[in-house]
Amino acid sequence: RSWAQGTMEHVVIVHAGAGFHAPAAEPAYLAACRRACIAAREALQDGPLAAAREAVAVLEDDPCCNAGRGSNLNLDGAVECDASAMDSSTGAWGGVAAVPGVRNPVRAASLLAAEQRVPLSHGRVRPMLLCGEGARRYCAASLGDGSTPLGSDGLVTAEAQRRWKRYSDWLETDSGRDGEEVGGRRADGEVDASHLSDTVGAVVIDGGLRVAAAVSSGGHWLKYPGRVGEAACFGAGCWAEKRRAGGSGGGGGGVPP
């Protein structure tokens, strides 16, 4: 249906991560995307920013995605996530970077964006981006039960722990060539999970042409603790303005504008 005819209700686009995926995992990714779209549609009554947030939160909760629970682990074997969100109605953007132990960092990013419209007392300036422990403290103080800090262990799946041990052993026994990625295609032809390093995201357009975008990522395998990825960077992770929006990931894929 056409917006020009005034009959288009909304558009929801979700991205469960580009990169290399084993064919056997395709049903899991499709199911996650389907649930994310449904969550976005149900939240649209609260606006496109809320819808994009809820879509990405579903992907963060699914261990098949590199975001939230199921994220790639850093050198220390811990989860540190990046996320950002933007609303075309106000131009507001919010992000969190290298935040440990938070189930749904996109909720914090979305809240930071929404709070840009509310002034602080005594002339203080609201943060757009929070990192590390400061971001974790903000989540603990501001978010509800669904996103309160869990401690890093609460986000580390058994499969992620197994892979981290394998990749850590590779680092100790084989230095590799400069620029060579950890892992690769296995002997059985399946794609190694170390290549699943991309960002998940969502773009939502409502019937009034209001647009919002949100992204979230666990980052690269064995990244240095404290590393800030593209998903948490203004103008790099996601963007939203009237009639257009997009999201990108470090793996070279993304939601097109």
Structure description:
27% of the residues lie in helices and 19% in strands. The radius of gyration is 18 Å and the shape is globular. It is built from 5 helices and 9 strands; from the N terminus they run E-H-H-E-E-H-E-H-H-E-E-E-E-E. The longest helix is centred in the N-terminal third of the chain and has 18 residues, at 26-43. By secondary structure, it is α+β, with helices and mostly antiparallel strands. The strands form 2 sheets. Strands 1-5-6-2-3-4 form a 6-stranded mixed β-sheet. Strands 7-8-9 form a 3-stranded antiparallel β-sheet, with no helix packed on it. The chain has one domain (10-255).
Outline:
This protein has 257 residues and is α+β, with helices and mostly antiparallel strands. The protein contains 5 helices and 9 strands.
Contiguous low-pLDDT stretches (5 residues minimum) are 1-5, 183-191
Helix content: 25-40%
Order of helices and strands, N to C?
EHHEEHEHHEEEEE
Supply Rg.
18 Å
How is the largest sheet built, in terms of strand order?
A: 1-5-6-2-3-4
What's the rounded overall pLDDT mean?
83
Count structural domains.
1
Major β-sheet profile: 6 strands, mixed
Shape: globular
Structural class: alpha+beta
Quaternary structure type: single chain
Structure summary, number of beta strands: 9
Distance between the termini: 19 Å
**How many alpha or pi helices?**
5
Q: How much of the polypeptide forms β-strand, as a percent range? A: 15-25%
Protein name: Asparaginase
InterPro entries: Ntn_hydrolases_N (IPR029055), Peptidase_T2 (IPR000246), Taspase1 (IPR037464)
GO biological process, one term: protein maturation
Pfam families: Asparaginase_2
